[in-house]
Amino acid sequence: MKKIAITLAATALLGACATGMNSASTASANPGAAATVMVGGAAMFPSKDIVDNAVNSADHTTLVAAVKAAGLVDTLKSPGPFTVFAPTNAAFAALPAGMVDTLLKPENKGTLTKVLTYHVVPGRMDAAALGQMVKAGGGRATLKTASGGNLYATASGSNVMITDDKGGTAMVTIANVYQSNGVIHVVNKVLIPG
Fold it and tell me: Which CATH architecture has domain 2-187?
């Protein structure tokens, strides 16, 4: 029974994340073949890098400001590939009052960098790859982040959930936003490293 539940959860993960799943295999191997996805009112072009797309999303202005403040622009413009779990402005706004302003101060650059790189996983992991990892992990996939911490991917019904080391959970709201140097999955919470 548990094996059936895990298989169903992995299937739900694949289905929930599958933006244009018919081209997911092709897109994973050839991001230029991926469909253009709308995020924050702007087209995200698979031929552009993570930064060049993110700056156009009205839903990610706080994330972009944080990436600039942390000095991570050049890193996220490099070939990668990277998988980015990108929190929206609303996700940052849900943090305790004053936390974003505090993180953006120059003296807190190290902490800001740790938080941001905690949302980055080396490699290109689209929905299909995440689903395979969840299935292989018995219903849960452990993802090693660029900051050295872990994120945990699971399926909850038709939703994909990403849990941080402190137990906070974000839902993937838009998956498979292919970039020339990786893939973005939009999430509704900021993930906090342990």
Answer: Roll (2.30)
Predicted structure pTM score:
0.83
- Give the residue extent of every domain in the chain: 2-187
d(CA 76, CA 52): 9
pLDDT reading at 139 higher than 50: yes
Structure token pair of residue 21: 């799943």
Band of pLDDT at residue 5, cut at 50, 70 and 90: very low
